[in-house]
Write a structure and sequence with these properties.
The chain is an all-beta fold and 674 residues long. The chain contains two helices and 54 strands.
Length: 674
């Protein structure tokens, strides 16, 4: 996410997690991990009001918050006195009081900030052509973190704007629109000597062939955003380029920082144009007014995944526009044709800033909705929401396992351009924007969202047959039997549980979910012997028909209303943030994201399996326990097969063929373990 890369080293210094001599560089180890918490919707009262312009960058270091942008005036918390601070300011992290001593003088906007190697200085990047009145120091400078005085030993002077900075493991990376740094050729990306400002010779990758849209003004070649894995071995670069070191790379490239070469990793997901449309005026995937539509990236605190946010207006033919996507960085991610782990869409409004904190992915922009992929119109100013979509106004928090929104919705109204910067600390995160209100309160252009007062997301409970019971449903009753996974005792009726009209059932963290014959999804508490009152899960329009242009993956069949699937469901279970289910006489195993905290069912539909040793069309009861898939077939047999717990709704049977446990009597309207 933009500006957290600089801010993270500061967090380590601030919290005491990293105490280093001033001669050493602080080790940047990714953003603060908030697991298992989600921040409060109520912003703290201890931030100043930035009265105009917008915030582009933020950095937290040694108890101070540094802010860069286009502003000129700020007020201390609770004060109406204007304080002049052009383009950059600092304030006390605890009190919000603006520093009187830190006053660098710049003549244009600040775009990026990063901590200095000594913990006592900061780097500033932007489009300014003088610093503290000295025109020999421009666009990338180092200043004292206390008084803003210029470090004249550091002289970098890129010839064009700096857009992003990352300080990682003693390395300072800069990206932007420049073609030279200190007179040496560098195409939008440089590894800068932290002491002198000179570009290091080890990194010199040409980013070239910027996409030129016929509807947009010509844009200079730019590397827009960069991020580096916590261990420092991979750098992600995004921008308007279509080649990196001569290799085809639309908008995004992965750099191996151990060799300083472009990795084989590539994707066509963010391609600029539709190869099936020869019309140069109308063949852009996303709105052609944008020279690039990736707007921000953030690598997770543990370095295992990357999240990307985009702009571009809604395009029903390609989900990369106005989207959030997650990309795996742990295995099988070194080759071409990479695809995202999940995609979630706003349905027509941009994401401008991303922050991954372990428990949640926060997205700031001017979005109106989340989980909203079924808008059939190509539009920038869109109506909605469409089936699945829920309101999330200018700010949202998403489940990293599936992209679905949590309930968190601290309404930012007006939405403006959006949240443009976020930086995490161990206690929450700071954000910067171009608007003044959040959650009904005035917090002008910046704020702090604390973990205190937020919520905790518990880990999922894994149900096993070594310490659980096996439940099956008949036309009217729920039965329970003892089992060790290989032998199953006779079923006994669970008294007081009405099982009529149930089609399929699954347990998740003490809650029993049932697909009903009327097409609803119902939840209730269940303790093994008693069930609580039923509550219908809001499908947020997924019970309605979806535009027929949207097809079941791998088929020419339109995606049906979820209610139609639920009414004919024959088995279901939950795993790793997804709900798996089967449908009578349908030879597919389906999955959809499911987030229990918000009771949100994912709009995107995945086909997880079309066989793998199971006749899905004839399943009549199904559950997952102890790494095995147990299922009954229409002939009454009970069977088991190994299960591969692939994430993101891609789990599937493994082992080739199923084992028959019992020959008859196991057809079930719902099967689960508790």
């Amino acid at each position: 996410m933009f500006s957290t890369r600089g801010g993270i080293a500061a967090v380590a210094l601030l919290t005491g997690a990293l105490m280093l001599p001033t001669s050493l560089s602080p080790v940047v180890a990714g953003g603060a991990d908030h697991s298992p918490g989600i921040v409060s919707e109520n912003a703290a009262e201890t931030t100043p009001d930035i009265m105009n312009g917008r915030v582009n960058a933020m950095l937290v270091m040694n108890g101070m918050v540094y802010v860069g942008g286009t502003f000129s005036t700020v007020q201390n918390p609770g004060s109406s006195n204007n304080i002049t601070r052009r383009y950059i300011l600092a304030y006390d992290e605890a009190t919000g009081q603006v520093s009187n001593s830190f006053q660098p003088v710049l003549n244009r906007a600040v775009e990026a900030l990063a901590p200095g190697p000594d913990g006592q200085s900061i780097y500033i990047g932007g489009g300014f052509s003088s610093t503290n009145g000295n025109t020999r120091y421009k666009r990338l400078v180092r200043v004292d973190a206390t008084d803003g005085s210029l470090d004249t030993t550091f002289r970098s002077n890129p010839n064009r704007k700096v857009l992003d900075l990352v300080q990682n493991n003693g390395n300072l990376y800069a990206s932007g629109e420049f073609t030279k740094v200190r007179g040496e050729l560098r195409s939008g990306l440089a590894l800068v000597n932290q002491a002198t400002g000179r570009p290091r010779p080890t990194l010199d990758i040409p980013f070239t062939d910027p996409w030129i849209s016929p509807r947009a003004k010509r844009s200079p070649m730019r590397v827009w955003r960069i991020d580096v894995t916590p261990d420092g071995t991979r750098l992600v670069a995004t921008g308007n380029f279509s080649r990196a070191a001569g290799l085809p790379r639309d908008q995004i490239a992965m750099i191996d920082t151990t060799t300083m070469t472009v990795e084989p990793w590539s994707t066509s997901f963010f391609r600029f144009t539709d190869p099936a449309n020869p019309d140069p005026e109308r063949n852009s995937w996303c709105a052609s007014i944008f020279p690039h539509y990736i707007r921000d990236i953030d690598i997770s605190p543990d370095g295992t995944y990357l999240v990307i946010g985009t702009t571009g207006a809604n395009n029903p033919l390609h989900p990369s526009c106005d989207s959030l996507t997650r990309w795996d960085l742990t295995f099988d991610t070194s080759g071409p044709d990479q695809e995202p782990d999940w995609v979630t869409n706003s349905g027509g409004d941009s994401y401008h800033s991303i922050l991954a904190t372990g428990t949640a992915v926060y997205a700031g922009g001017h979005q109106q909705w989340a989980n909203n992929p079924y808008n059939p119109r190509r539009c920038g100013f869109c109506d909605g929401p469409y089936p699945g979509g829920v309101v999330r106004t200018g700010f949202s928090a998403h489940d990293p396992s599936n992209g679905l929104p949590f309930t968190w919705n601290p309404v930012r109204q007006p939405r403006g351009k959006g949240v443009l910067a976020m930086v995490s600390t161990s206690n929450g995160f700071f954000f910067g924007s171009d608007t003044d209100r959040i959650n009904g309160e005035v917090h002008r252009r910046n704020g702090f969202m604390p973990l205190d007062g937020g919520i905790t997301i518990p880990a999922d409970v894994e149900y096993t047959l070594t310490d659980g019971d096996f439940y099956t449903g008949t036309a009217s009753n729920l039965l329970v039997s003892d089992s060790d996974g290989t032998t199953f005792g006779p079923g006994a009726i669970v008294a007081g549980v009405d099982w009529s009209n149930v089609r399929a059932a699954a347990m998740l963290n003490g809650t029993l979910y049932t697909a009903m014959a009327n097409g609803t999804l119902v939840r209730r508490t269940f303790n093994g012997t008693e069930a609580g009152p039923a509550t219908v899960v809001d499908l947020n329009g997924l019970e309605l028909p979806i535009d027929p242009i949207y097809l079941i993956p791998g088929t020419t069949d339109p995606i049906p209303a979820l209610s139609a699937h639920l009414a004919q469901a024959t088995g279901m279970f939950f795993e790793n943030g997804f709900m798996y289910y089967t449908v009578e006489n349908d030879a597919r195993l389906y999955s959809r994201g499911f987030t229990q905290e918000s009771q949100m069912v994912g709009a995107p539909l995945t086909v997880a399996s079309t066989g793998d040793g199971v006749d899905w069309a004839n399943v009549r009861g199904m559950t997952l326990a102890s790494g095995q898939l147990y299922f009954a077939l229409a002939d009454g047999s009970l069977n088991s097969i190994g299960w591969s717990s692939d994430a993101f709704g891609q789990g599937h049977p493994t082992g080739g063929s199923a084992t028959t446990i019992a020959g008859s009597g196991w057809v079930s309207n719902g099967m689960f373990v508790f």
